[in-house]
Design a protein that fits this description.
There is one protein chain. It contains eleven helices and eight strands. It is an alpha/beta fold. Strands 2-1-3-4-5-6-7-8 form an eight-stranded mixed sheet, sandwiched between helices. The chain is globular and about 45 Å long.
Length: 265
């Protein structure tokens, strides 16, 4: 990880304000839209089958999140994903709750096989469930550590020629060969709904402005973690954590990024 490259990627987002098209879930729409705005991107939440193809036509990245599934939204994701492939714009996929039900496993597999996402981001249980569909998750929460899911992530990345991100107490990013470990963050982040989905959305902004997908994924997860640390230092609990997270993301500076690395070292 290089603090300078992370800052450059962040500044590219703020300068270019990429349009990130999200087909995401009801629970996190507001959270993720505000996070994208705070980092400097331009979010759009559009899921109607009649318009997703056109919306992808003007977007710089597509984020697919299967948190609240419906047949209509799944079809919209497939249509949007195929259009993104045509335009060669990056797709970030969040297999929320994979492993919880057979239907979620089926849809996650269908989206991956049809849309060929450049990045798949999930918690440890979700990533393992994509490889072993007998693996169970606790709703949308992970029941295993990120490190224990690393072999599954490597296999998934090699199988689909993509970047896989496992988020948790420690984040791991792999392309099937390389592995980067990101240890920033704070446990209070787990008490705010949609933080994982927020990470997925932010990855959309990073890949929209960085052709090096592995680097973009590492940068995005690092910014997510550092922002979480800064916000938790100011928060009194989950409610204020969410507010401070947006403020800290909006104000995140090169100095704060460098200081975070110095603290880790």
């Amino acid at each position: 990880m290089n603090p300078k490259m992370i800052t450059e990627n962040l500044e590219a987002i703020r300068k270019n304000s990429p349009l990130v098209h999200n087909i995401t879930n009801y629970v996190v729409m507001n959270n993720t839209a505000n996070a994208l705005l705070a980092i400097g991107a331009s979010p759009v939440m559009a899921h109607a089958q009649e318009e997703v193809k056109d919306m992808v036509g003007i977007a710089s990245a597509l984020v697919l999140n299967m948190g609240t599934l419906s047949k209509e939204w799944v079809e919209s994701m497939i249509i949007a994903g195929l259009r993104a492939n045509e335009r060669k714009i990056p797709i970030v996929f969040d297999p929320v709750g994979a492993g919880a039900t057979a239907y979620r496993n089926e849809i996650a597999t269908r989206i991956i096989n049809n849309c060929n996402p450049e990045i798949i981001r999930g918690n440890a249980s979700e990533i393992m469930a994509l490889v072993n569909q007998e693996m169970k998750t606790k709703g949308v929460d992970s029941v295993v550590s990120t490190k224990s899911a690393l072999d599954s992530a490597k296999y998934l990345a090699q199988l689909h020629e993509c970047i896989v991100v496992i988020s948790g107490e420690v984040d791991y990013i792999t392309d099937g060969n390389r592995v980067e470990r990101v240890a920033f963050g704070n446990s209070m982040m787990e008490k705010v709904t949609g933080m994982g989905c927020t990470a997925t959305a932010l990855l959309g902004a990073f890949v929209a402005t960085n052709d090096n997908l592995f680097e973009a994924a590492v940068n995005g997860m690092t910014v997510m973690g550092i922002t979480g640390e800064l916000a938790s230092a100011k928060a009194n609990g989950p409610g204020s954590m969410q507010m401070h997270f947006l403020d800290c993301l909006y104000k995140l500076s090169e100095v704060e990024i460098e200081q975070a690395f110095c603290t880790v070292e």
